# Entry
Amino acid sequence: MSFLIKGVSVLGKGKADLLIRDGVIAEGGAGNAQVIDADGLVALPGLVDLHTHLREPGREDAETVETGSRAAALGGYTAVCAMANTSPVADTAGVVEQVYRLGREAGLVDVQPIGAVTVGLAGERLAELGAMATSAAQVRIFSDDGHCVADPRLMRRALEYVKAFDGVIAQHAEEPRLTEGAQMHEGEVATRLGLTGWPAVAEEAIIARDVLLAEHVGSRLHVCHVSTAGSVEVLRHAKARGVKVTAEVTPHHLLLTDERATSYDPVFKVNPPLRTAADVEALRAALREGVIDIVATDHAPHAVEDKECEWGYARPGMLGLETALSVVLDALGSSAGGAGAGGAGVDWDLIAERMSRAPARIAGLTEHGRDIAPGAPANLTLVDPAARRRIDPGESASRSRNTPYAGMTLPGRVMATFLRGEATVLDGKAVK
Ligand SMILES: NC(=O)N[C@@H](CC(=O)O)C(=O)O
# Structure
């Protein structure tokens, strides 16, 4: 199948016609290509998510590799990195190969498994990092996400181990002793609601420790879901020293604050928790500046019984794949003075960098995050910046419904996504 995308805005090129043939951006005659009228649409390199929970194996009632992949494609993604906190945990070559194979079979996005750092995420001994790296899944990112690698000696060993194959340790920065029983951000709102707080310093202390360890070892550290202004300052300091550290922020931490907890609706319960408006401002500025390198969704689907219960019993986590781009456009627009009608003023190069190119580089996904130019793999997404859509959880392709944006109207809409030249989304709908 070939496609001729007519009149689309391409970064650095203005309006152009794009020909997709044999899986790549092609040149020459269009022949019998299917024509897509892309007037008013913006072409971006396919988005890359460094932090997705696909729940398979083990919690297929909440998500499967296939349903999560479809949600990803609808969100404009062509690659996602699948977190290791499945059941069984992705801590062996066998499990990461299973996830990799399921991703290939679904064929909607490239699914790159992340391996666990420690056996069973228990934080006691290192998992078989080398075996996962040399497996068919070629794992390069290791994370105990959901849990912090709290033991400094184990963290040091992990950083040392992955250096041999240019791997990276993605840390869920949460000092567990400081967050025992925590339900939400520690601050004025938690006090008012009488809920146990998760203090900002529990994140900042681990990031500070880990950038020092990464510097000492000379290895690569990636910090998951940065959520506080203080973490930004630690990262700024580390980067100025030349530490090999990268960091992500989630869409929800760029838009929502701890005030949402006043509803006691567990859809707003997430780890790390929603923080203050001042944190949100600092995260937006850090993303724009590059102290935070990327946006990652932390898409965390949960079954109804795990979410529609009392706040204290609900699992933390929220959906993110289908709404990420819109939330980022909204968040950066409202404080950047940009994102006017029709997407005027949006810094599309920044969006491409933070949501595609940089995450592809960190994950080593060389087929993704490429400039849209002849010869490049046709992994791209077409966005209608003028569209606004009301978020209806019932319309989600995810198996779960825990979106915090239900009923909100957000800017931008993904109209088409292509994975190696195959359409996975057309006219804003999943193709298969
Ligand atoms: N981010 C979340 O709130 N939840 C994550 C794991 C975690 O980080 O707790 C999940 O897997 O559900």
Remarks:
- Residues 200-217 form the longest helix (18 residues).
- The first strand starts at residue 3 and ends at 10.
- The chain has twelve helices and 19 strands.
- The chain has one domain: 45-369.
